Amino acid sequence: MTSTENHRERYFAGLKTRQKVMGASHVEKSLGQASEFSLPIQEIITEYAWGEIWGRPGLDLRTRSMLNLAMLTALNRSHELAGHVRGALNNGVTEQEIQEVLLQTMIYCGVPAAQESFRIAEGVVTEFTRARESASI
User: Fold this and answer.
1) 22, 42, 60, 128: which one has the fewest Cβ atoms less than 10 Å from its Cβ?
2) Phi, psi of 44, rounded to the nearest 5 degrees
3) What's the CA dihedral at 72, 73, 76, 77 to 10 degrees?
4) Which residue ranges form the domains of the chain, and what is each CATH number?
5) Cβ neighbourhood burial of 105 (10 Å; 0-12, 13-18, 19+)
6) In this prediction, what percent of the chain has a pLDDT beyond 70?
7) Are the C-beta atoms of residues 72 and 81 closer than 8 Å to each other?
8) Confidence tier at 5 by pLDDT (50, 70, 90)
9) Which of 46, 25, 42, 45 is nearest to 34 (CA)?
């Protein structure tokens, strides 16, 4: 197998995982809105973050999602946090587990970071729940 084939396989494996976690429409939007300038980073994120790291067998997707929530809170990355709250819910992380992760981060990362994450997570959880309820009607 050539290096190009390895990259291609890893990219498509990453694309599949990224769509499963973040939702196909989110991924299509991210890739579709990429400019010629920003497309290389979207491809690298898909291949390496989603294909290489998220695809590793050592942790399940739920655990990876909870770790991301804690790290994004610590780094104060609100925009990324909202997407990963949706991803965590897609991966079966419960609302209570999200609360517990954010409370844990409060102790180690500070109250302001955790408060901001709680505000973002609450909005996403509410939106996710409403969408799920309307889909089941």
Assistant:
1) 60
2) -65, -45
3) 30
4) 1-58 (no CATH), 59-137 (1.20.1290.10)
5) buried
6) 99
7) yes
8) confident
9) 42
Q: What single-letter amino acid sits at 99?
A: Q
DSSP 75-124: TT-HHHHHHHHHHHHHTT--HHHHHHHHHHHHHHH-HHHHHHHHHHHHHH
Give me 35's structure tokens. Answer: 């400019």
For residue 68, name the pLDDT band (cuts at 50, 70, 90): very high
Place of tokens 């599949």: 16
3-class secondary-structure state, position 22: helix
The tokens of 31 are what? 């890739």
Tokens 């959880």 belong to: 125
